[in-house]
Amino acid sequence: MRTPWEAERAPIFFNAVALLFSVTAGAIAFLPFALYTSPWDAVRLKVPENQGNWWHVLIGAPFFLAFPMIWLRLRSLFSRQQSTPAGRRLIWTVVAFSICGTILVTLPFLLRLGNLARMNEWRRFSILFPTFGIVLASAAMLFLRRRYMLPTPACLVGLNTAYLANAALCLVVYGPMPGTARSSSGWIVTMVIVWPMLLELVWIFVRSFKTPDVPP
């Protein structure tokens, strides 16, 4: 019978495929998302017409959560210890900052600030619902399943949640913007990888129902 710590490790094939998607997510940080501007450009305030501000920094930074994901995937494939206590603390710190940043980014839409006061209600709802829905649903499941969530899968839930919440916001906000496939290749690739990432979230929670209580 497997111990909880042995059960923490996902099948090798699953980890290999997840690593591929995580590496792809890491590449998106440097691909143009809209108007030839990448998340890396956004965090450096390299925005067209010098319009970069704190909003662009907060919306670009969560794309770099892909790199802690890659670290966890590599350890799952090549190390007996999937994560370390210090590494997990660092991951939860960046996840918390990322989610707080994403919430700040949505405030102008939530409060109808500036030009957003004239935004169509359906458009506003389509921006807020995926972002808050992903965060609230994952937080609720983590709380309800906390006795059954092993440390590394819980970190993956946090990373995927923070990444997906911001990605969903970006996909909806930047989707209607004009441009060619080359100028928004990051948007196109993100649209592809968010679905397997969302499925992984569901899979981790489903898997927690087969895990014994985690020792305190």
Task: Give an overview of the whole structure.
The protein is mainly α and 216 residues long. The protein is built from nine helices and no strands. The protein has helices at 4-7, 12-28, 39-43, 54-60, 66-78, 85-111, 121-144, 151-174, 185-208. Helix 2 runs antiparallel to helix 9 and helix 8 packs antiparallel against helix 9 (185-208). It is globular, with a radius of gyration of 18 Å. The two termini are 20 Å apart.
The stretches of 5 or more residues where confidence is low (pLDDT under 50) are 1-6
Kindly name the structural category.
Answer: mainly alpha
Helix content: 55-70%
Distance N to C terminus: 20 Å
* E-strand count: 0
Order of helices and strands: HHHHHHHHH
- Mean pLDDT, to the nearest integer, reads 88
What overall form do the CA principal axes indicate?
globular
Number of helices: 9
Largest sheet properties = none
Q: Any key phrases for this structure?
A:
single chain, 216 residues, mainly alpha, globular
Helix and strand arrangement:
Blueprint: H1 4-7, H2 12-28, H3 39-43, H4 54-60, H5 66-78, H6 85-111, H7 121-144, H8 151-174, H9 185-208
Helix pairs in contact: 2-5, 2-9, 5-8, 6-7, 6-8, 7-8, 8-9
Describe this structure in a few short sentences:
The chain contains nine helices and no strands.
